Amino acid sequence: MVRLGKTLLKEAANGIGKTLSGVLACPLSKQPLRCCKETNSLISDSIGVSYPMKDGIPCLVPRDGKIVGGDDNDGHNGDPATIQSTD
Amino acid sequence: MASLQFGLSSSFASLPTASRFRRVSVRCSGDRQVLFNRIAPVYDNLNDLLSLGQHRVWKRMAISWTGAKEKDTVLDICCGSGDLTFLLSEKVGPTGKVIGVDFSKEQLNVASSRQNSRWRACYESIEFVEGDATDLPFSNCQFDAITMGYGLRNVVDKKKAMQEMFRVLKPGGKASILDFNKSTKPFVASFQEWMIDNVVVPVATGYGLAEEYEYLKNSIREFLTGKELEELAIQAGFSMASHYEFSGGLMGNLVVTR
Fold this sequence. Notes:
- The structure holds 2 protein chains of 2 kinds.
- By secondary structure, chain A is an alpha+beta fold.
- In chain A, 14% of the residues lie in helices and 20% in strands.
- Chain A contains 1 helix and 5 strands.
- Chain A has one helix at residues 2-13; strands spanning 34-36, 41-44, 49-54, 57-58, 66-67.
- Chain B is built from 9 helices and 7 strands.
- Chain B has a 7-stranded mixed sheet with strand order 3-2-1-4-5-7-6, sandwiched between helices.
- In chain B, strand 2, helix 5 and strand 3 form a beta-alpha-beta unit.
- Chain A binds chain B through residues 2-4, 7, 17-20, 22-28, 30, 32, 54-62, 64, and chain B through 73, 97-99, 103, 105, 108-109, 112, 115-116, 119, 123-132, 135-140, 142, 167.
């Protein structure tokens, strides 16, 4: 129950926990990922690809990636930053 | 009696027995992903049944070989339903980090459910990630230890998987890769195939998995021998590589050091 609650909180915060913080990278470029709260996804600014998070699990198989549009709302709005920890 | 780890895939939705010998296409990575998604609901039960519980011993051995210890950051590749992941978390404790990565979302769902269903302090250090063993979603030199249980045999590009393991390991870190052994002894190889045909298949039939048995037998035939695995590891950049056989030569464990 506690664990389920923590998963829901993480999803609600659209973030990545402490364990994954600083470890995850884009599977293709191996560069840091940025968390986008609006789309609940992880953005690889180095190659302009976003990866979804489903049920609190980052989906980082290369074919899960989608090209980030130029003017859409994928949160592509600033410096690339490392994954934000929710803790 | 030697035991077998059943790492097969199958359609859990029951198939007509007339399709028992239908050859299932599992040549590419996508096919194998579908396969492991389908087997997810019965994977744990079948492993226990077919190996008579021995797979638990083999997995503990595999973890011992990594040298993983408290506070370490460790990775379990092809984690499936999480057996090795949970054992690793017991080694590194609540102050360590354990990441389980697999390309099967269904297997990860089972692993997540297992994590949620029982609470231990060390399980809080576990996170699951959907990812590909040949394109690991991690920065360089992140992990003190890596495990891979009954996964390398199912990876199409084994060389790339070894290179990725090398890349994400810290210098001096070890990877322990447990799998079926492709024996160079004809008797052992024949016995292994006999076991699949006369033990695994009859048991698997009860779960509606008989038609997929060809994958296991062929996957072992197409696997690398211990010596070939050692050579592959050295080519990938590891400084040391040793392959150990056990359970009468049916199982093997490759231990590599960056």
